[in-house]
Write a structure and sequence with these properties.
- This protein has about 120 residues and is an all-beta fold.
- About 0% of the residues lie in helices and about 40% in strands.
- The chain has no helices and ten strands.
- The chain has strands at about 5, 15-20, 40-45, 50, 60-65, 70, 75-80, 80-90, 95-100, 110.
- The strands form four sheets. Strands 4-9-8-5 form a four-stranded mixed beta sheet, with no helix packed on it. It has a two-stranded antiparallel ribbon with strand order 1-2.
Length: about 120
């Protein structure tokens, strides 16, 4: 997480607070350099959306006609192909995660979690 310092009148020490860009660009701070697609799902507190590169894991998949791209941790922009719900198998049932982005060039499946 990036931090931005601010100076207060009553203190000589700058106070740090999280810096969040005003951009609405979907983003993920998880980066990986492995080749191929991994079927596991990874929690990413920096991700603004759930993301998969595997369209076969998507339900109610709709082609994405918007102009935004997914920005990953190294600053690279990846093309969003579609949106929908991801279906993740578990021991007892399947879990569905709505508002999932399908980004074919991403190598890891990411679950957006808040901290």
């Amino acid at each position: 997480m990036k931090y931005m310092g601010t100076q207060t009148r009553n203190s000589q020490q700058p106070q740090l607070r999280p810096f969040f860009p005003q951009s609405h660009t979907p983003s993920s701070f998880f980066t990986a350099s492995e080749a191929g697609h991994d079927e596991s799902w990874y929690m990413d507190s920096g991700a603004t959306s759930h993301v998969t590169g595997d369209a076969s894991q998507m339900l109610n998949n709709s082609a994405y006609s918007g102009t935004q791209s997914l920005m990953v941790g190294n600053g690279q922009l990846l093309k969003i192909a579609s949106t929908g719900s991801a279906c993740i198998p578990s021991v007892h049932s399947k879990l569905s995660f709505h508002n999932t982005l399908c980004v074919p060039s991403i190598k890891k499946n990411l679950l957006s979690v808040s901290t």
